[in-house]
Amino acid sequence: MATLTKEQIQVKIDTLNTSITTLLADNKNRGISAQDLRDVSNSMSTISEDLKDSATFSVSPASSVTFDDSELLSGATDVQSAINATTETFVKVIKSVADFPTPVGNLITLLSGIVYHIDGEVDLGVNSLVIPTSGCSISSLNGARDIGILKSTEDSYTMFVSPVASYSGNVVIGGITLTASGAGSKVFDLTNAENGSALDIVDTNFVSCTSLGELTDYRQLLFNNIGFIFITEGLTFSGNWSGGIAVLTTIAVGFPANTLFKEGTSLVIAGGVRSDINFLSVNAASVLFDFQESNITADGGMSLTNMRTVADDAIPNLAGSSVKARYRDCSGIRNTYVGGAYSWNVAAATVIASPSTFVKAAGTTTYTDLQWMTGLTDNAITHDSDLSIEYSIKGSLSVSGTNNDIVGLKVRKWDNLLSSYSDVSAVFSGTMNASGRVENLTFFGSARLIKGDRLEMWIENQTGGRNATIVAGGAVMVEERSS
What we know:
This protein is mostly beta strands.
């Protein structure tokens, strides 16, 4: 027999009541955590051990209270069952297709507010999973992607579809393997109809899929820590994507002479594409992205960093020189080198009427390797991107004229917004030799350019109002400054 005071009994009961009340309130507001469950379970166990030793307990100082032990334990079991039932409102363990909602015409409509926890290999057969307009979540234990598997070997099958005559919402998939290996089968056929939803797919393998399918009119997609393993057909993107596409910490293995990420119908990506994918274990004729400039709204919106490939032409429609491309530290494709160069190929005298008066240098110039820049007129290299870029300018030019005259060079910027010139370098001077030349006069400067701004070389004669000529050859080099 255990002897408890009335106050001790009341404290223990109050503790249990408080725990359960808090638990239920938390479930309503944010869902129950694993720690919540452990706390309540520990409270019940403590009270049960204290009270079940006898059916009668002395209550100091002068009265007794009788408890029915079986009723007490039954009550504890009922509370635990209630907690379990509450837990099932947001986590559903899936061991077989029968654990999903009942199919209607081979369509299993998933519920929002529930995490479908894939426990083992689940063969969906002919049943497609319908992603509702309010979205859904599917996952397995972290690091268990080789254990939590959704698969189908049926022909002409689609694993994830949108509701009939409607659209799908947010999709969260994590820590599983997906396989749709039947002839003509695919993983996705989803549309968001421009309702601002996103797909977050992380820690997931796509294995032996006939096709990844198509995604239409979503806001954005995140692939992170993904394996595309022995995929036959890639993923098609269609419609308007107001956010963008990110493919990070991802690898493709055994990909054939096909395209992994494809342009679909009326594709426009406003937020850009970024990736550091390992695209090495692929067929030499394979394509990573077949997007073109018209698909990318933002300048520099096709952003690849540390991407690696052995494919002969992994991105055939967007060269690194495109104003829509920003490729850095990549292997297997040409990186983006913002800038360009020009030189004088036909010399012409620059008319200088007054001493120490700068004039734009005359002559015919030739431009080379322009990236994000244009050279539509002589001696004027123009920034051609909506993005503001910090440039460095350097070079070496020879000048001819009257011996002993001192000539100067400087770099000037035409500000397209202000419609005015400004100097972006110091004056670099030299004295004509006996042959009337200044050889290899070097110069340098820097400037921040926005679209329509241009850089030009200007010349002066500090000695008198006499002409000077930029000799054919030399170079003016403009390149983005390193950060």
